[in-house]
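[job 4471] stage=fold_predict status=RUNNING
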Amino acid sequence: MLKLTKYNDYKNFKSDVLSYLNKNEVENNLPIGVLESLTEESTVYLMATITREDKIVLVLLQTHPLQIILSKPPIMSDHVISEIARLLSENIDDIPGLIGEKTFTDKMVNIIDKSAYFVQMNQRIYELTKVKKEPSSFGNLRLVKMEDFPLIKQWVYLFCEEIGEKISLQESEEKAMQLITSERTYAWEVDGSIVTMASTSRPTRSNICISLVFTPLENRKKGYASNCVSALSQLMLDKGYKTTSLYTDLDNPTSNKIYMEIGYEPIMDSILYRK
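[job 4471] inference complete, writing structure tokens
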């Protein structure tokens, strides 16, 4: 029999689910990363597990008002998926959106109410263990600095606009400041000017995610993003991570091709549904 259990204490939740999530560390990079970043002050809308005979089959975590993160599901029958969808509908007052493994999440949304949701983004998760395409010697990777702030805040704003997650100018300034001060954002520099950026996020036991890859229009189709991601991926491997990972938009075949050339291999398709 399936059982849904909600949590109020993030420490108890983390203690109960982390070892389960780590069994598929890269596929579960998103829930692990979010979980590891939680503090007493964090806004959390939902923490829950679905168990069968006291064994976890699904972890649910919501810190974003518009979506619930679903852990990588095990292989299960359509009947079990229907039971899980029923549990969610009965125990969660409002399911604003779901992000998770594509086939499973598609079935969940179809059962809950297909007409109530739209696809925000079709994604693919990639994993890299070895860089196959080294960056060009024309340019270099460097940490973003405070002197770059005017440009980085503009790039953050444009990046969010491109992926359909529009933010205000003030929010882009706050995000840019956070990226710079946390020393996790890098840029590819050519002739003294930065031309593209990429950030690291959600470090886990042996993996770290490459995110926020952005190149302004005037610098595209010159190989800068490829150089930046290649160099940053190698830097993370050199720092001791066994793998790096990233999410791509499946509607952008160019970026998917670039990442595969660098050495990224697809491991799971993910989909984001919202109301």
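[job 4471] summary: DSSP finds eight helices and twelve strands in the chain.
[job 4471] exit 0
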